[in-house]
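Chapter summary example.
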Amino acid sequence: MSSIKLKGSSSGDVTITVPAAAGTNTVTIPAATGNLPLSNLSHVTNRPNAKPLIINGDMQVAQRGTSVTSVTASGYRTVDRFFVNLTTMGTWTVTQADDAPTGSGFQHSLKLDCTTADGSPAAGDDITISTRLEGQDLQMFKKGTSSAEKMTVSFWVKATKTGTHILEVDDNDNSRTIAKSYTIDNSNTWEKKVLTIDADTTGAFGNDNGASLRLFWWVGAGSNYTSGTLGTSWASTVNANRAVGQVNNADSTDNNWYITGVQLEVGEYTADTIPPFQHESYGDSLLRCFRYFERNHNFGVVQILGYSTQGIAFAVQKRTSPTLTFYSAASGAGTAGSLTEAEASGAAKVVTSSVVNISGLVRTLIASSGITNTTMRGSFDADAEL
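The structure predicted for these 386 residues follows.
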């Protein structure tokens, strides 16, 4: 083992130690003038963020389930943190698919399968996949200042339909957008796309828990979104410029569209220089998803004598005070504010949440008339999505 020591110009030094290795190993430093930035070295990860900015970019967490059929409206379907925006543009099955690019380290993807086609979309029709980020997690981009940083968005995509597709980056705080086109070159083949987004010196991201940044992957669009000129520079949002050139993935029931490996980086990178995807354990990714949505499958068994109060702590603090939906343990379904006991009689119980905040809730249980002693359990959803 040998080492090289580099002396600082005034004080300090850096030691580079080379371990023993068979054969000859070469590290090539690219040509550059002036100071060589670390971002030019493909083997160096030079990130200002310790964790990936995109949560669940490898699509491994799907608390709501792994498949939803007959989707005709917007909502979070299957994979956490990725929202299906859909306005009367076909019918879809949305799946957490066990399909990913070979050798990538990914095991899952978000899949859209067109089951009812829309070959002639109306002007206002659209379908996109989006993810949303809090402004307080984006301050390293220094947006709205003279020191604003570029962004790089990278992802793997596979589609039946080849041709032009659009990624739109939306500054929701300031109603500003920029769009970049990419091409699906080969049908039903995983392809990696790396897109650079220009720095924007206008409009700062709010330093709060609001949805400051939204990334939209367009899948299909009506003329309201395609009749202008693609907005490839930051500007005030104009609907006609958002998805110009986008192919229609809804025009055939043979069409599928997949995405995985989504990452957002500070700075400008190419396919050769972009840092590796930051893989998180399932447990760490799940905890980060819990900030926005938590499905508690069984919050315990409670013995009540006509009236009882119980405090329940969420797994993690929520982004904001969540909307709660309670479910019966027996039926697996219910509505907010109601619950049925797990016993065979199925006598109803009144459930009121006297306190709900970002940390948890206190629920009050009142037995039905004539019921004085019973066992009760169930589950709930806590929704604090952006």
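To summarize the output: The mean pLDDT is 86.
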